[in-house]
Amino acid sequence: MRKDYTPISDADRTVDETSFVERYWTETWNNSDHLPDVSALTRREEYRIMRPFLAQLPKGSRILDGGCGLGEWTVFFARQGFDIVGLDLSGEIVEKLKIRFPACQFVRGDIRQTGFEAKSFAAYFSWGTFEHFESGLGECLVEAHRLLRPGGRLFISVPFNNWRHILRDARRLECWDHDFDARDGYRQTHRFYQWRLTRPELQRELELHGFQTERITPIHKLTGAGRWLQWDFRVFRPNTRAYFAARRAFAFLMPAAYISHMILAVAKRR
After folding, report:
1. Which of 68, 216, 226, 270 would suit a FRET pair with 159, their CA atoms being 20 to 30 Å apart?
2. Which CATH number is 10's domain given?
3. Per-residue pLDDT tens digits for 73-86
């Protein structure tokens, strides 16, 4: 497991982790110009992987969307007849979602201590959330295990410590961390942002916390190719035709283990 850090303002230096994570994602979602397209989720890799497992559940089964963000997945599964709850740490975003989607259930809460009853969910999914606490994935997985019924499925995605990252991290820090200067150090204060995991590391975390791992799959090759071009390769100017063409080509040609941005795990509660 490897740590990633993000530059912060002086105001965030002494803020506790929970408040920092809540404020970071509240600002991220408020500043996003992305309007969720619920109909497009059927084409997402996450849904294609989840679908065979969810098809085994009766309509009306209770599902948790942990770290629901802009709420598109909660809305999507509610329209499919599931009893789904969207949970997010950002109270401000949750209140906006309640107004925008009054027919759906949105709750403000911490995925490490949700307050829901034990064994009250048939399935639980969380995209890019478990990795944002510096103590590791453990507290999130303990709570997920508590919430799921025996045999219930957990679907999570986390950043992939792929071969691009592994080879990059083996180089001198100043060669790849553009915030670092070999003479002067870091120009700005940083704090922990997320963990990156390999596939065996994610499997170990799941198995140690009472889950039987059924599948771990690299996903989001296109995103990974774009990040490689922008951060490491630095030949094509972002958001140009040449950049988009190169991104598609590299995503097609490069192995998933080298370039994929995330890994998605399917696990069963023992």
Report:
1. 270
2. 3.40.50.150
3. 999 999 999 999 99
Q: Which residue type occupies 135?
A: S
- Give the range of the structural domain holding residue 63, as residue numbers without chain letter: 2-160+190-219+262-269
Residue at 175 is within a domain = no
First vs last C-alpha separation in the chain: 24
- Given the structure tokens 């170990």, which residue do they identify? 204
228 occurs within a structural domain: no
Does 170 fall in a domain? no
The single-letter DSSP state of residue 160 is B
Domain count, the chain: 1
**Per-residue pLDDT tens for 236-264?**
888 899 999 999 999 999 999 999 999 99
> 8 to each of 14, 15, 23, 186, 231, how far by Cα in Å?
11, 11, 12, 12, 19
- With respect to residue 48, please indicate whether it lies within any of the assigned structural domains: yes
Calpha distance 11→267 (Å, rounded): 39
